[in-house]
Structures are given as C-alpha cells and as structure tokens.
Amino acid sequence: MKDILRASPWLGITLMLIVGLAFYAPHQVGLLVWTLTKVSMGAFVGYWIDRSIFHYARPTEMQSDKQAFLHSCYRRAIIISSVILACALGL
Questions:
Q1: DSSP 3-state assignment of 19?
Q2: Is 80 helix (H, G, I), strand (E, B) or coil?
Q3: What pLDDT digit, counting tens, does each position of 23-60 carry?
Q4: What's the pTM?
Q5: What is the Rg, in whole angstroms, of the alpha carbon atoms belonging to the chain?
Q6: How many other C-beta atoms are found inside a 10 Å radius of the C-beta of residue 80?
C-alpha cells in the first residue's frame, strides 16, 4: 500500500494547481487535462516498453553491480522521457 501512495504529495500539489487554474482560467482546464493525459500515457507506455525490451536488465535486478545499475537507470530514464516527449509533441 505504501508503494501506491508514494507519489501522493505530487498528486495533491497537482490537484491544487488544477483547482487554481479552474478558478482563474476555466477555459484552460480541458487543455490541461488533455496534456496531462498525454504525458501520463507516455510515461506508462515508456515504462512498459523498457520492461518488455529489457526484461533481463531491470534496475532492481542490477543493484549488485553499481555500474550496471546506473546504466539500467539511465536507459530507462532515456526511454521513458523520449516516449513522453513523443506523446506530448505528436498527438
């Protein structure tokens, strides 16, 4: 259960900002929700692309070798950020 609530502070901050935006510029809420949906979808898809392509080299399995762990973390970050960027710009 703790793992599910790990990002809850960020969710709370985001919801407060959306409420503030809805108060000051309600016509922009739909665009914000659409953009957040695309970014979230990109993060989800990028994570699963990394997991499916590199199923043998997950960062949690590479913790014994520090250099392999760092490379797997960098690889995952690059893949996820690339898919987020592609989704945010291309859809």
A1: helix
A2: helix
A3: 999 999 888 888 888 999 999 999 999 999 999 988 88
A4: 0.74
A5: 17
A6: 19
